[in-house]
Amino acid sequence: MSDPMRIRLQSQAGVTTVKVLMSHEMESGQRKGDDGKIVPLWNIQDVSATLNGKVVMTAEWGGGISKNPFLQFAVKGTKPGDKISLTWRDNRGDSRTDEVIVS
Amino acid sequence: MYPTNTGSIRSTYKDAVLSIILVALVGIAKAQSGSLEGLTSTANVQKSEQSAEQSTEKAIAQYRQMLQEANPADLYVIKGESLWNSARGPKRRSLASCDLGLGPGVVKGAWAQMPRYFEDTQRVQDLESRILFCMQDIQGFNSVDLVAQDFNTPERLNISLLAVYVASESEGVPFNVPMSLPQEKEMYKIGKKLFFLRAGTHDFSCSTCHSETGRRIRLQDLPNLTTQDGAGGAYGSWPAYRISTGSIWTMQQRLSDCFRQQRFPKPIFASPATIALSVYMGFNANGSEASAPGLKR
Amino acid sequence: MNNSRRNVLKKSTAMAALLLQTLTQCERVYAYQQNAFDAKTIADLNKSLGLNLPLESSQITINTPEIAENGAVVQVAATTTLANIRRWIFVVEKNPVPLVAIFNLSEDLLPSITARAKFAQTSDFIAFAQLADGRVFYGKREVKVTLGGCGG
Fold it and tell me: N or C terminus: which one in chain A shows less Cβ crowding within 10 Å?
C-alpha cells in the first residue's frame, strides 16, 4: 500500500508550477545493509503527469534519485478547475496516483 | 552498533578539506592583487581565512535553503496525522481525545506549551512521554513494553510519526513552556544541572558543545542551548527529517544520540532525565517561534 | 447466416472493439531503458540513448548547490532558453550509475525541471537537453560533497 504524495501547485498567468514530494525508499542498489549484504535496488522507475487526462510529462528514474523524491515542473495553458494527476510505478510493481485541482 | 564508514568519511573529509583549502586559496589570491607583502601579512591571511569560511557557510546555507522549500518531513506529518486519527491498540480507539495540555483533542499549538505538568499523571511530560501516556491510557498500549524497545521498532517509529504530526501543528507558534508550578521549576533545575554535568569516559557534558555561541565541529554548527536564540532554533526544530538516515528523529532520539556521542550510558526513553533536559531547553526557547518539522543533514 | 455464426461474429467484433479501445486508451507504453541505467560511463550512456555529439551550451542554466552537506540529497535543476526541448537527461558523472533520470517533455511544459539526486562523491552534474530535431546540448556544474560533523 503506497503512501500519498504531497503535491503543491502555484499558478500564475496560466502556468502552473507543480511541486511534488513522493514517499519512496529509493534504494540505490549500492548500499550495504546491517547484515553486510547489498540492499537490493528498489526504486520508482516511471513517473507520469497528466493535465485533464492528457500526458504532459513522463520520466524514467534510476536508483540515483534521492529517497522521498522531489520533483518540480511547470505546465502551460492551465486554468482553474483543471486536474493535474501524478503517477509513479516502481520496480516491484507498486504504483501510486494522486490528483490535485488547479485553483 | 555505531555506524562506521571511515573510508567514505575520510574521502569526503578530504574533499571538504581540499575544497576549503581551494576556497581559501582563491580568497587569498583575490585579496592580494599581486602584492608580495600582502601574501605574508597576517591580517590578509586571517581575512581570507574568514572569507573562505564565510563562503563555505554561504554555500551550505544555499544547500539547506534549496531543500527547505519541500521538506520530506511533510510526508511523515501526513502519516502521523493519519495514525493519530486511526483506531488502534487493544482498545481500538484513536488519539482524538488525547489531552496535550490545551484540552482533550486540541493539537494545534499544544507542543509549543510542552513540556508541562499534567494533573492526571502528576508528572511533567514532554511530547513523547505524553503521547506514550495517551497511547496507554486511551488505546491500551503497554508503555513499559514500548519504552523497552529501540527507536526503530514499528510501534516506536509510530510514536515518532505521531510526534512529528503534533509538533507540526505548532509550527510558527512562539514557545510558551509554563514555569509556574513547583514541579515545572524543579524539572528545569534538574535539566540545567544535567546540562552542565560532566560525566562519562570523556568527561563531556551537553555544555561542552552547546554552551557557547559560534562553536562548530568541522562543518556542523553547534547551537548555544543556553540562549533564547540558540535554544529556540535548535530545540524548536525537532522533530526533524534527517537526510543521513532518511527518517524522522525526535528530540528523545536526538538526546539519546548525544548521550552516545558523549560516551554516556543509554538514556531510558521518555525518562524524567530526558524530559528535564527538554524542560531546560524548551523554557530557554520561550518567545522563539517553533519551526518543526526541521530538516537536518 | 445462421444464429450461432452471427453470435460468434457479434462477440468477436465486440472483442476486437474492446481490444482496440484498450490499446488506444493505454498510456504510452515504452520500455524502461535498462541499458541506459546500466551504462557506467557517459560515452556508453550517450550511445545507449542516441545522444550524438552533445555540445555545451550557455543557453542551459544549471542550478545546484556549490557544496552539498549530504550527498544523499542534492537538489538539481536545469532550465534553458533553447526552444523545443523534448528530453532532459540528468547525469551525476562520478556515480556508480551516472544516469539519474530521463524527463520526456510535451509541448505543454516549460523547459525547467528540478529534482533531487544522490551524489556518491564530489562530481559534475550534467544536464543534457535533446531538442525536437534531435540535436543535443548540455550544461554542467560541479557539486562538492562533504559530510562533516557529528549530529544535526
Answer: N
